[in-house]
Specification:
- By secondary structure, this protein is an alpha+beta fold.
- It has one domain.
- Helices cover 62% and strands 10% of the residues.
- α3 crosses α10.
- The longest helix has 37 residues.
- It is globular, with a radius of gyration of 21 Å.
């Protein structure tokens, strides 16, 4: 594994983990269009009928940028398309039905949101790992020859390195964006009031996150991922509009989508402040004294699934209230933030996103 390959993977892994841990997964409502595939490759046209089809409201299509590619998820499939150095697009397509759809007992509001949150985290990691594995193999073939193949031992070694990278990224996210704001707020001396403590901690957490996003957006590898993020948004916009999925039609749309997890950063932050403040108050009443820093951390950490579940439900609800002016106000700060988290893609990146979306929309 070369240093450049490892650095690229680390950058992508950190970017994905932190975005999902703080903002939640990207989820977009289907545009209720009936689509049929009309071919493959560059310049391919996917004919999407503008005639509305009867589709349930809770169906959704969403995605995520990966290393030199895009992952798309429909109600029935997950597809990841990656551009190889030789310009070929490699696609991985798997059937997918959420656990909440397979088991009615798991389809309880908020609980299903938390479950979906972690499902998407796992799915996203697998897609990112798939793209990183391709990037790694292509890099090593460039160094060792086109006929080079990884041995079983090398695969195990690389798998351990990637697992270590995941642990490092997760640990970094928890320390810098979760524990450190609590520690700094405690030092400031605002531990007397649960609400004031969590307002300051939330402000510090968001400030760190914005600074981090701005810094990594300057990295070459991350800039490519952000361009693929923009390509993902554009292609879904075109699908929702019932347009043909071609580079020309997709190009016309914006990279800023209101149902990206980034768009609900503000409401997630406010929700976290209120939820953690209530939890700290309850803990104080139970203990008979103000919670210590460690007790706060344990309490807040244990509430992350609940926070993710509620946030997911709110994000889903926004799809039904897209034109509501209050929803537009709530998503406005996130849309501004997408000026950092998305970049304008080139035609080859749009093509990859289109291939991923078409593959995800195929019937089983």
């Amino acid at each position: 594994m070369t240093f450049e390959s490892m650095r690229k993977y680390l950058s992508g892994m950190h970017c994905f983990l932190l975005r999902n841990l703080i903002n939640g997964p990207c989820v977009f409502p289907l545009g209720n269009h009936a689509c049929r595939n009309a071919g493959r490759g560059k310049g391919v046209r996917d004919v999407c009928s503008k005639k509305r089809a009867l589709v349930s409201d809770d169906q959704s299509v969403g995605g995520q940028a990966v290393i030199e590619g895009v992952m798309m998820r429909s109600p029935r499939r997950i597809a990841t398309a990656v551009r190889k150095p030789d310009r070929e697009i490699l696609t991985k397509n798997d059937p997918y039905i959420p656990l909440s759809k397979r088991h009615k007992l798991l389809n309880i509001p908020v609980f299903r949101g938390a479950l979906s949150f972690f499902e998407m985290l796992i799915i996203g990691l697998k897609a990112l790992n798939f793209s990183a594995d391709i990037a790694l193999e292509e890099s090593q073939r460039a160094e060792k020859g086109a006929d080079w193949q990884r041995t079983r031992g090398e695969r195990i070694k690389d798998g351990l390195i990637l697992a270590g990278t995941l642990v490092l990224a997760l640990g970094m996210a928890l320390c810098v964006f979760f524990a450190l704001p609590l520690f700094l707020t405690e030092i400031i001396g605002l531990s007397k009031g649960a609400l004031s403590f969590n307002v300051v901690a939330g402000f510090i957490r968001v400030s760190f996150f914005l600074a981090y996003l701005w810094a990594i957006s300057r990295w070459k590898e991350i800039k490519r991922i952000l361009e693929y993020h923009g390509a993902e948004h554009k292609s879904i916009y075109a699908f929702e509009a019932g347009e043909e999925l071609t580079v020309a039609t997709v190009r016309r749309h914006s990279t800023h989508h209101p149902r990206c997890g980034t768009s609900f950063l503000l409401i997630v932050v406010i929700l976290a402040i209120l939820l953690f403040a209530i939890a700290d108050t309850v803990v104080e009443m139970q203990l008979g004294h103000r919670p210590t820093l460690l007790q706060r951390f344990i309490t807040h950490f244990s509430l992350l699934p609940l926070l993710g579940g509620i946030s997911f439900e709110l994000l889903k609800l926004s799809g039904k209230k897209r034109d509501n002016r209050y929803v537009r106000w709530l998503t406005a700060p996130g849309l501004l933030l997408q000026r950092i988290t998305t970049q304008e893609p080139d035609d080859s990146q749009l093509e990859v996103a289109i291939v991923a979306l078409k593959s995800a929309l195929k019937k089983l």
